[in-house]
Write a structure and sequence with these properties.
heterotrimer; A mainly alpha (339); B mainly alpha (172); C mainly alpha (102); B: mainly alpha; Four Helix Bundle (Hemerythrin (Met), subunit A)
Chain lengths: 339, 172, 102
């Protein structure tokens, strides 16, 4: 009874709290990183060196007036931010933060569950994130958000194809769909899949940038384009939910990339015995550091690269990424059979 | 016991949302009820130990096909459904006739299953005993016994892709 | 009543199918008709999955995967036809789709 209900509930509560706190502090980190890239300091006023800025932002957003446009569809208007945030959060149910560890005398795995179709679950839940964007633009009952939301959803579903093909080639390499199984496959082969499938890694990273509407693919939500994109008419907590969802999606893509390509919770060179002293660092610290490295690259790219135009974006997705991804699947299959 | 609660709960939601799909005036709400319906059908598949089918249902049906319907609804942009020339009594008559047919079928199912309780005919395994897990078994079947339908389905999808693009273009 | 047998799933599948049929026959908006067709296909899939569970053979699920693939193809082409028709005649009421040329 305790095992079925209490332990997973406890894990879910801890994980959701951790994610929501990380997401709010990522807003601060983004502003700091972009500021440092531009030779300035970023938010410095609230708290020591600006550390309490996310709390101030959260308070501000919570206290703003709740405006619903006049002829907007009330139910759908309220539902849209939830439909973006919920898929981003429930993906974390299958992401493995570490193997079984000894916690308070029990042997507990550091993930909520390990289903045998874990990777496919992640892909399918990510494909549900499109709904919130389409409905957000439509429910605002105004033409600019509608156009922006159609653009954003077209971008999302185009890059979803490329990302799914890349994940198929990773499934071929790892031989299993379960996330824990993929990390174990990396431990057995002694090599991170980053070195086995570098093309897939690059494709996944670019596709992940486009999936989360991050620069340089952030045309749908840039302030200079289409008066602010599909969340123009949203204010207060609903706007906060859209932004939480975007950062949560970034953390999801980083965690999935860490698990698939960088060995999850394994230390570098897991098969080399001489580096055994690295085992002193707990497995989940390795996982979090690798995820954080990815997130930093996301922010770094935002500070550096200019934005793609919409037709360039779609051309890149359909004419460049998808053929390379399909070729990667074919090559992975041939190599896996021959070796 | 838990399975019964799950099954009755899921079926109540499935049938409820299906009735809402069919009766709502606003087309966008109808599409959203269809999304909810498909999610509960996917949960039912998990109850039937068909995990691969459940995930494919969410990925392809909910995440692909219904998104397509939502796009078309928004491009066609109708908020109220056109129900001109509605004859209310005709609706009631058709509905009663069809529900009568369904009730007759239910009675037939229940009588049949009570008379011959679960024949339990097992189909030959065709070499499945060595692969484990639901996904591996489905993959094995797809690539050995049902390879030709698999290839034909891929050609069908290619034809559908080309056809959809040709039909929806503004000028050929 | 507490023991869930295949008959339960068959009853559920039959009701869902009939709701789909009622939707096709009663509604006039062609997009709702298409969605009712998807409900019917789902009812068939539930039936296939239930029998696959009872007979402990996975071929029912393979068939259901093919049904989903065909439904995707049909939805794409059908919606393309609707869009082409709408562009010419500005209606989605099937009572008004009664001419062979416009």
């Amino acid at each position: 009874m305790v095992d079925i209900f209490v332990i997973p509930l406890l894990k879910i509560v801890i994980l959701l709290n951790a994610i929501l706190v990380s997401v709010s502090y990522m807003t601060l980190l983004e502003r700091k990183v972009i500021a440092w890239a531009q030779s300035r300091l970023g938010p410095m006023r609230v708290g020591p060196r600006g550390v309490l800025q996310p709390i101030a932002d959260a308070l501000k957003l919570m206290m703003k007036e709740d405006i619903t446009p006049a002829k907007a569809d009330k139910w759908v208007f309220t539902l849209a931010p939830m439909m973006v945030l919920v898929p981003a959060l429930i993906v974390f149910a299958v992401i493995p933060f570490g193997p079984e560890v000894n916690l308070f005398g029990r042997l507990e795995p550091l993930y909520i569950t390990d289903i045998n179709v874990g990777l496919l679950y992640i892909v399918s839940v990510a494909s549900l994130g499109v709904y919130g964007i389409i409905l957000g633009g439509w429910a605002s009952n105004s033409k600019y958000p509608l156009l922006a939301s159609l653009r954003a959803s077209a971008q999302l579903i185009s890059y979803e194809v490329a990302v799914t093909m890349t994940l198929v080639s990773m499934i071929v390499t790892a031989g299993t769909l379960s996330m824990v199984g993929i990390v174990e496959a990396q431990r057995e082969s002694g090599l991170w899949f980053l070195f086995v499938q570098p093309v897939a890694f690059v494709l996944f990273f670019i596709g992940g940038l486009a999936e989360t509407n991050r620069a340089p693919f952030d045309m749908p939500e840039a302030e200079q384009e289409l008066t602010g994109g599909f969340h123009t008419e949203y204010s207060g907590m609903r706007f906060a939910l859209f932004f939480l969802a975007e950062y949560a999606n970034m953390i999801v893509i980083s965690s999935v990339a860490t698990t698939l390509f960088m060995g999850g919770w394994l230390r570098p060179f897991p098969a080399v015995e001489a580096l055994g002293f690295l085992d002193l660092i707990p497995s989940w610290i390795w996982f979090i550091s690798k995820t954080f490295a990815f997130l930093y690259v996301f922010l770094w790219i935002r500070a550096t690269l200019p934005r793609y135009r919409y037709d360039q974006l779609m051309r890149l997705g359909w004419k460049v990424l998808i053929p390379i991804a399909i070729g990667n699947v074919v090559v992975s299959g041939v190599v896996k059979v021959l070796l | 016991m838990g399975e019964a609660i799950a099954f009755y709960g899921f079926s109540a939601f499935i049938l409820g949302f299906a009735i809402l799909v069919v009766t709502t005036r606003n087309t966008v709400h109808s599409v959203l009820f269809l999304v909810a319906n498909f999610m509960f059908v996917a949960m039912l598949y998990v109850l039937l130990s068909a995990e691969f089918l459940a995930v494919i249902q969410v990925l392809v049906y909910t995440g692909g096909i219904v998104v397509l319907y939502l796009f078309v609804v928004m491009l066609v942009n109708l908020k109220g459904s056109p129900e001109a020339h509605e004859d209310p009594r005709r609706l009631a008559r058709t509905g009663l006739l069809l529900s009568g047919a369904v009730l007759a079928e239910f009675a037939a199912i229940i009588v049949y299953s009570a008379a011959r309780p679960s024949a339990g005919a097992t189909v030959s395994d065709a070499g499945l005993s060595d692969v484990g897990g639901n996904v591996e078994q489905v993959g094995w079947m797809l690539y050995t016994n049902y390879l030709i339908p698999f290839e034909v389905a891929s050609i069908l999808l290619l034809v559908a892709m080309v056809g959809a693009i040709v039909l929806a273009k503004r000028e050929l | 009543m507490l023991e869930i047998t295949t008959a339960h799933y068959m009853v559920l599948s039959a009701s869902l199918f009939m709701i789909g049929v009622i939707g096709v026959m009663v509604r006039r908006n062609i997009i709702i008709i298409f969605m009712s067709i998807e409900l019917m296909l789902n009812a068939v899939n539930i039936n296939l999955a239930a029998f696959s569970y009872q007979l402990e053979h996975v071929v029912g699920q393979v068939f259901a995967v093919f049904v989903i693939a065909v439904a995707a193809a049909e939805a794409a082409v059908g919606l393309g036809i609707i869009l082409a028709f709408y562009r010419n005649k500005e209606t989605v009421n099937i009572d008004e789709m009664n001419v062979m040329r416009w």
